[in-house]
């Protein structure tokens, strides 16, 4: 399989060698060894710092989407009301998941490339009376970083749980789980953490635990078995020890360098990316610079280019970026500068390649 010297896809990102090394080690059985449970507990403590929360953090085997499915199925039963807030395909996707699971679902859409009006959210929530409100912090297909704090207040007003996907933002942008009133905070390993796509993590508030206990869902992706399981040394399945060892390395590196330093690095690289695009005459998708994510930049395809043609031309020069999904497919391409790819030299080289491709046309 061909590899590329300049990888700027919006996830899974490149995995540093130090984070791959644990996969070459031999470990015991994760559900039997005390050493594993101590590692789990350490990782949970580190994740609390990473996500700025005092809540429990559940660490499960499986790609980040497992956290989304598990959160919904753990606290909602068919017929329960779900309000999905959307300004992109993943926000809308929460609603589609809810419909598929038999929830009474409403999807509230923002104007294209914009954030939802908090007052419109408040009015819809009061009228609908949802049990859960969902939203996405970083909409990677559209490069949007959404304000979350106003939604926590709305959720409390209508006694709803707030479920937020911060898979593509946490660590690269400030995430304040408790301060923002997030009851279910969802994270994946393959973005800013710069790991393989094999772990999903969920910060669970006491209110969310109470809802999960009342429902009693016990599927593979269920949260409830993890409430006491690690402390009681009894897991619902054999965990991925290799991934957990790799997670420990990633979290220790980010936290030892400092979260603020990570935020600053991502912001600086994102600003350079957008500055270079502007000089090339390439427009970005978000309507406001304030909504641009520090982890991914979504740009409109230049005039005269199809996504297939641009992707092919970049690959010929050793660079790979991402296309987009749904309504933005064929209209937007995405540059992933998160985690290990939040590197000024790497992004600068990538922008040099893009500028050369566009100039040569």
Task: Describe the overall structure.
With 361 residues, this protein is an alpha/beta fold. The chain folds into two domains: 6-14 and 259-360, Alpha-Beta Complex (Aspartate Aminotransferase, domain 1); 17-256, Aspartate Aminotransferase, domain 2, CATH 3.40.640.10. It is built from twelve helices and 13 strands. The protein has helices at residues 17-20, 34-51, 65-75, 89-100, 118-128, 149-157, 206-215, 229-232, 241-257, 259-280, 307-316, 344-360; strands spanning 6-7, 56-61, 81-86, 104-109, 132-136, 138-139, 144-145, 161-165, 184-188, 199-204, 296-300, 319-320, 332-336. The strands form four sheets. The chain has a seven-stranded mixed β-sheet with strand order 2-10-9-8-5-3-4, with helices on both faces. It has a two-stranded parallel sheet with strand order 1-12. Helix 2 packs parallel to helix 9 and helix 10 (259-280) runs parallel beside helix 12 (344-360). The protein is globular, with a radius of gyration of 20 Å. The model has no long low-confidence stretch (mean pLDDT 96).
